[in-house]
Amino acid sequence: MRWLIIKNAFITLTIGFGIVWLISRGDYLATASVYPIDFVFLWLGVVLAGFASIYTIDDLQRGSWHKSAMIYAFYYYGAFGLFADGHVADWAHSTGYIEKLFMSGFIIFVSLFSIVVPLIVFTISVIQAHLLSIAVENRQL
After folding, report:
1. Which of 126, 127, 86 minimizes the C-alpha distance to 104?
2. Which of 68, 83, 111, 127 could connect to 117 by a Cys-Cys bridge, CB 3.0–4.6 Å?
3. At a CB cut-off of 8 Å and minimum separation 6, what does 60 contact?
4. Has keyword Membrane (predicted)?
């Protein structure tokens, strides 16, 4: 199971980086070089991808894939909200931790009323949880 946890964390991290790259319009490194707080949240994403992978595989061994899909949705929405700051509608970029967390919460709240962002996030989350549940079932046999 250890390799499955590592592979799943890597997949989660790759999808999260893809979301960060898309929301920053491919300009993440230029933005992060100006605002180093982005690197802190990027490392937080790495750590949370590992914890999410451990927790979801444990849940899937018990047969609860719905909770796993929601965990991935929260992770991907968090990546979207944290790194949309400063890129959505050309707003000013946050410089502090509290300001960045507040703005990401605001961006996530506003995006919940659209159709596209929740549809994409929940589709990716359900697909990942379903494929991971198949992998966990194959490992238990």
Report:
1. 86
2. 111
3. 68, 129, 132, 133, 136
4. yes
DSSP secondary structure string, 125-138?
HHHHHHHHHHHHHH
Are 82 and 41 spatial neighbours (Cβ–Cβ below 8 Å)? yes
What does the block give as tokens for 28?
A: 């993440």
Token reading at 21:
């790259």
Per-residue pLDDT for the chain (141 aa), expressed as one digit of tens each?
788 888 888 888 888 888 878 877 766 666 666 677 777 788 888 888 888 888 888 888 887 778 888 888 888 888 887 777 766 555 666 667 787 777 778 777 888 888 888 888 899 888 888 888 888 877 764
DSSP string, 61-123: HTT-HHHHHHHHHHHHHHHHHHHHTTTGGGPPPP-SHHHHHHHHHHHHHHHTTSSHHHHHHHH
What length does the chain have? 141
On whether the pTM is more than 0.85, the answer is no
Taking a C-beta distance cutoff of 8 angstroms, is the pair 94, 85 a contact?
A: yes
